[in-house]
Every structure is written in structure tokens, then in C-alpha cells.
Design brief:
By secondary structure, this protein is mainly beta. It has three domains: 1-110, no CATH class; 112-162, Seminal Fluid Protein  PDC-109 (Domain B); 169-217, Ribbon (Seminal Fluid Protein  PDC-109 (Domain B)), CATH 2.10.10. 3% of the residues lie in helices and 34% in strands. It is built from one helix and 20 strands. It has one helix at 47-53, and strands spanning 3-4, 11-17, 20-27, 33-34, 40-44, 70-71, 76-79, 82-86, 90-91, 104-105, 115-116, 122-123, 128-131, 134-138, 142-143, 157-159, 169-170, 186-189, 192-196, 212-217. The strands form seven sheets. Strands 11-13-14-16 form a four-stranded mixed sheet, with no helix packed on it. The mean pLDDT is 86.
Amino acid sequence: MPHVTASDRPVLWAVEKNNEVIAAGVMAPGGLTVTGDDKALLSDTDENAFLGKVAGKAGDFTPLPDAGTPLEAGEIYAYGNDLVLVRQNHTRTEHEPADVPALFSVYRADADEALDWIANEPVWVGTRRLYAGKLYEATTEHTTQADWTPDATPALWREVVETPEAGPQPWVQPSGAQDAYNTGDRVTFEGSVYESRIDANVWSPSAYPAGWTLIGPA
């Protein structure tokens, strides 16, 4: 049975049947959404990625109301054949959703991973926003305010520092036994990846080939 796996970040989800969205919403961190076998679930923790997955599939989903209608943050509507996400409470204007990014999230093929931080937007624990060139994640559910910027409110936001994927690092001449390579350690050397076959290995792959196994290109 299709389901959305619980996450520590808010998850946007949409139920799809016959290639059209028939229901959509936002799942709070730790929640779980399940649907029947005759339907599919599309979901993502990133707003833009989610809107990209449902692009062109709005079908007869609830259309965006006309100007003058009160809208609430978190609501999802069809606009054309795509979905749009309401970012903050407001009264619908005559502007195109794509022209008012502070009010709506729409799919943008060239968008960054996270949306820019704005004031007056309800956010969940785990919501990610960009502010002053840095990525932040909300640690407390709240509605943003102009004087509560992420850099000034560590009780509400934490900076996300992306850790690069671990992998073989360039071979460096060890200074002694304390930083020598051991069996199984991998390094890159002259464009290739090598794995040490011995402990206390202080030689490069070219200086002592018997101490290394060639794995492949770096």
C-alpha cells in the first residue's frame, strides 16, 4: 500500500489517480500518510521538488479562488494544470502566483533547493529557508516575523551546514606511524583510487605497489 514515510521535516504529499492529483496536503514531522493500492503518492520535503513532481497533473483539483478570497498558509490549489502552495495568510489578489513569491510557491525549474525566508509565514519544525546566503532549518514551529530573522533567533532556527560526502582523499606522505595508512584505507593517487593492503603503510602506491590495490579511476 503506497505510503509517505515519516520524516523529521514537513512532507508535502499528493494522491494521484489516473495521472491526476485528487488530494494534496502537508504532513507534519513524524506523521504518516497512507492511500489505497489503486492510487499513487507523490511526496517531497522540498517545496519546489514536490511542485515539480505534480506539474501538469492538477486536473480537477480545487482551483485557486478568485481575487478577494481569504487564503490560509499551507493550502494547496490548482492553477492552470499545476499546483500552487500558499505561503502566508492573505486575501487573494489579481497577481499571477508566480509574480508574488512571498505569497505563493510555484514550480520553478531553476530554483534553489530552499525558498528564501520571508516574514509572516507559518513554518514547521524542519522547514528550510535561505537567508543572507545561508541555509537555515526551523527548530520550533512558529510564524516568522520581520524582527525574527534566522540569524538573530537561534532559539527558532539553526544554520544547516552540509557535510560533504565521505570518500577517498588524496594520498599524503605520512610523517610516521601515527598518521600512516592501515589495511582498507583508500586514497586517490595520480588519478586513481587505491586501497592499502597493509597496516602502517607510509609508502605511496608508486613507491611500494605491493602495499596497495588499484580500485579504479578516481
